[in-house]
Amino acid sequence: MQHATPSSAYPVRPVVTSFAPYSPGLSLQEIRKAYQLSHVIKLASNENPLGASPLVQQSIAREAPVVFRYPRSGNPELIHELAKALGVDPARLIAGNGSDELIDLLLRVVGLPGENNVVLLEPSFSIYRMQAELSGLDVRRVPLNSDFSFPWRALEQNMDERTAFVFLTNPDNPSGHATSARRILRFAENLPEQALLVLDEAYIDFAEDPDSLSPLKHMEETDNLVLLRTFSKLYGLAGLRLGYGIMPPWLAELVQRIKLPFSVNILAEKAGIAALRDTVFRSMTRETVLDQRRELASRLTDLGCCVYPSQANFLMFQPPMDAQTLHRRLLEKGIIVRPLNSYGLSEYLRVSIGREDENLAFLDALQRIVADESEKTADSARNG
Ligand SMILES: *Cc1c(COP(=O)(O)O)cnc(C)c1O
Fold it and tell me: No. of H helices and E strands in the chain?
């Protein structure tokens, strides 16, 4: 195969030449093919364990004949429904092609290349760092506390008069750690005057008590807070790409101004509206995740894993054997979990909360692999 390096004659931006792309979870198709398996369980990308809502599927089928039309720019129908559902001013809302698009847009609206900086936690969702670097902003990484809680003092010490953004994920990925709305609001009050706090709430709906964690109800009292939410997790629309942001109206107006006009497609918009209306599917998803999270955490602990407390639809854990080996052995058995090397956490794994049958299959495989491994260790101790 021909190598895809462009000739040095082209003025490619240096930031692009050295750019490392996002490292996603492995796909079902990749694993089926590589290991010649017919049945694969994917617990790697925090997708909805119940799939997509039946109402959403009906709405997509109903809208199929209309895909020759362009969507309405700004997706007013969806914005109207969201504003109603959330109780926020529609002037504060923007829909995007996943919340990923909104992260990218925010970083292109605010912050001067070569002048401003972005403060991030390390480790955190890699898209923040990637898009900040592409925008030419200086990235300051602040290590999480050793228990994966937020280092508030260190964050404050890293902010200055050139900080454009601070990014926090609550509940956090990959740890599942959550912090209170009260603590976040206090932090937002102490931000430098020109800085914005982006609070990524991709997993907020899986918290025991989302209202105590989200400052949503206090948006009107703040002028430096941006909330990001997604239809990819609770609403089961990861493949359709739909997210939204809640932000000060002046910022929403600027983001809308530069956004590509049709980035939220016509099916995503209709599916989003149907998903908002399907309260049954939503509560079934929440119930499944919360019940199974408790169950899975307790069984993993019984199997010798160190499990971190999680308010999200996944668990991060340290297995009682080498995490990379465990990840590989699980793949051989057709179970995909997420290794955390790309987060710099090579001793940990992250598993999405699946349906009960999937979680049991995962636990069963894990138990066998760990037992095999300790037998091997005992053998080599006897023979060594
Ligand atoms: C899954 C996830 C998202 C969602 O991204 P989309 O682009 O909306 O699919 C956002 N932030 C974090 C931290 C996530 O884990």
Answer: 14, 13
